[in-house]
């Protein structure tokens, strides 16, 4: 499909991705760095992302869903690929045939994998996940304490990893961080042979005591700020540009867009850009955000609609239809946009649209 007429363009800077991986690798010393590439690598395109990180030395990739793990496997024949969502009944064969690791999230899943290994007379790899504060996925505390007493239940399984996940890591001073780390450190004593992994992106920047044997990073690789109280150490990976489709010269007071949310007070030049909330430019930015044009910040006026956004370009001489404006880019990155849209950079990335091309720089 030729999408070259799309009025938006998403560019993905693979050199920035490489640098972010290297920065995390330096930050974590002897701990290994695995890459979380769920949801199409947070919307950036799973194939380019996993190839780039593999070449950079990353050997372990994590997804949420089994189908996503299969996508990684189709790109990287030799990578270690783990699906986090858990081993659901009937999926065992798919894991085996594609050499994928299931995450065993409860005693039933563990039992099922052990039975499957026995039936095939094979010692198959897996990861264990203990829930130390999310009440979401993973063995509940009573369940993992019991398993710590009865580790023979792991017999016949090649249990490579022991995971838990931090609930509040982006707030460095939150007491949950130390509580979860201490609980994790206690419980892993019963499972010394596994690689232990607690930290995601934000956990990496809590310090070495959170790194254990491996970290699982997603957002920071893609330019998200892992700690809201510090200057973002990560390089920006994505840029979204939108094309001006038309410019309206307003003379007398007139309303702009749905709901007549904005009224141009008098003489004003309004540019309509071919990007809207369907393209991942949040509707919450209506009358809020700015877009950048050659380093100049231009206010979004009126409602962001599905395919269109209106911008005040009165102060920009010479701007014409066909010019590209930066919706996400220098001066306005995914973290800034998330604050303005009252959300988090994860949601900005995973909302990026599907109808414009992803152009990879630095391949
Ligand atoms: C999504 C996820 C990660 C990655 O989190 P980031 O904050 O994007 O680094 C790590 N571990 C688990 C269990 C996850 O679900």
Please explain how this structure is put together.
The chain is of the alpha/beta class and 363 residues long. The protein folds into two domains: 31-222, Alpha-Beta Barrel (TIM Barrel), CATH 3.20.20; 238-361, Beta Barrel (Lyase, Ornithine Decarboxylase, Chain A, domain 1). It has eleven helices and 18 strands. β4 (80-83), α5 and β5 (101-104) form a beta-alpha-beta unit. The longest helix has 14 residues, at 14-27. The chain is elongated. The mean pLDDT is 96. It holds the Pfam family Ala_racemase_C. GO terms for molecular function: alanine racemase activity; pyridoxal phosphate binding. Its cofactor is pyridoxal 5'-phosphate. Substrate binds at residues 136, 306.
Q: Brief overview, please?
A:
With 363 residues, this protein is an alpha/beta fold.
Explain the layout of strands and helices.
Layout: E1 8-13, H1 14-27, E2 32-36, H2 38-42, H3 46-55, E3 60-63, H4 66-75, E4 80-83, H5 92-97, E5 101-104, H6 107-120, E6 124-129, H7 141-149, E7 157-163, H8 175-187, E8 195-197, H9 201-204, E9 214-217, E10 238-250, E11 254-256, E12 262-264, E13 268-273, E14 290-293, E15 296-299, E16 309-312, E17 324-328, H10 334-340, H11 345-350, E18 358-361
Parallel strand pairs: 1-18, 2-3, 2-9, 3-4, 4-5, 5-6, 6-7, 7-8
Antiparallel strand pairs: 1-10, 10-13, 10-17, 11-12, 13-16, 14-15
Helix pairs in contact: 1-3
Binding site for substrate: 136, 306
Pathway: Amino-acid biosynthesis; D-alanine biosynthesis; D-alanine from L-alanine: step 1/1
Pfam families: Ala_racemase_C, Ala_racemase_N
